[in-house]
Amino acid sequence: xxxxxxxxxxxxxxxxxxxxxxxxxxxxxxxxxxxxxxxxxxxxxxxxxxxxxxxxxxxxxxxxxxxxxxxxxxxxxxxxxxxxxxxxxxxxxxxxxxxxxxxxxxxxxxxxxxxxxxxxxxxxxxxxxxxxxxxxxxxxxxxxxxxxxxxxxxxxxxxxxxxxxxxxxxxxxxxxxxxxxxxxxxxxxxxxxxxxxxxxxxxxxxxxxxxxxxxxxxxxxxxxxxxxxxxxxxxxxxxxxxxxxxxxxxxxxxxxxxxxxxxxxxxxxxxxxxxxxxxxxxxxxxxxxxxxxxxxxxxxxxxxxxxxxxxxxxxxxxxxxxxxxxxxxxxxxxxxxxxxxxxxxxxxxxxxxxxxxxxxxxxxxxxxxxxxxxxxxxxxxxxxxxxxxxxxxxxxxxxxxxxxxxxxxxxxxxxxxxxxxxxxxxxxxxxxxxxxxxxxxxxxxxxxxxxxxxxxxxxxxxxxxxxxxxxxxxxxxxxxxxxxxxxxxxxxxxxxxxxxxxxxxxxxxxxxxxxxxxxxxxxxxxxxxxxxxxxxxxxxxxxxxxxxxxxxxxxxxxxxxxxxxxxxxxxxxxxxxxxxxxxxxxxxxxxxxxxx
Length: 596
Known about the structure:
Low-confidence stretches: none
Helix content: 55-70%
Strand content: 5-15%
Shape: globular
Distance between the termini: 43 Å
Oligomer: single chain
Number of helices: 20
Structural class: alpha+beta
């Protein structure tokens, strides 16, 4: 089995040089995020990831979870690993201090969460959903709900879930049928069934706090009639202790392609009299509140795409260095060499490396923007960063997860036939990655969000401003004799993206279906170009450090070479995608159904 070693040097470069940790740490409330503390947390997280989570990744995948009579048991080592996670306070890293959190920047938490996902993606799903539930209750919950649940959720003693999907209501939440009947004491009795509930039942925490979408008897039809409720597995006594078992049960768990160590539950509420829940916020605003949690989860799933790509890269690189096969085409002798010397293996490794570094840079920059959106004292700066982050979240989620599928597949290809054998572990990364482009909204849903809610709502203003910012980086690159080729490639990609934004804004009103047919290619194009923007920034900084004669020369030279490869072999794909976005929607929609 492969080991996991957190790429701390690259994380530090991105955090400090691209995402601007020094600026983030100057924001009110983040003053304790000194360089020494940030480095210490990264080092400790890396130890926990490689020493505790990674060793149970393969075994957990092979064993899977066990269901019996409504009780779910996680694979060997999972419960102990989670207890270590709680004891070390990892769940509260960026949570509010008033509820026991450490109040550190989300940018730092972004890097740490990459480690959890890379070392053990199935395990990381439990704290991922808990963080989303915490965020939703922080913003939308009553004071009583916050005091009842958040202290234990922030500590990790209790975990959280998100209950949206039903057998008849997948992405179309307007079809939700779960009912919430008001009671005389102000509570509600919840009845209904939810499916695909990640960690809906498990043995790692003493209580599970379910956030459940349901309809009250007077609710209007459609999405305007959905409310959000807190439904704990165990009711909570006035003193904060656990009370009676609530009527929320796991009917079964799914048998899945991947993430076997993460139980995906079918949850049944109210089969024995009604599950007791409390309304979050106002009635009929549940979908609005759930999107608070969903946006947090979508960004986190984008990090999963990045993380599993890095894990696949580490394993493929180690195999390519160790596997002796074939001759070096550059040397005229009969000596067998490691396959890393073969041209196509090198190409595949560079495709993985360059795209993984681009994903990391883009995700961390968005993480920093979220910190500014929440904590910057300047209202205009907050608004600017919020608009940027909202534009980028569907790109981070969609592009990083689609990349992860390609990257983990390349990881198998580098292994050759051994990659198809489960014992090597390469196949697990591919299987685990496949769900990331589906849950928390498929890539198609992310693309609809990107063009509908993010591009069209302001006539493309935020996107155009971003492209202008990118152009400044491309101009600086093009003015450099050393980096001009990177700049020219980025300029072409920005032009392709600009043409597509213009097409969407001008054509959507009259040809909405045709424009939507190109929405996923547009999302991928934006990911590629935004990734190129960050790789270009990295190259400029690396060249500056080399000129100064400071730092690790080999690291900075590799940054420039990797950016150049990205510019030569990844960025040109933007042109082909632009043709698809602008030119193929009419054919897609006109194609007769009887010819499929």
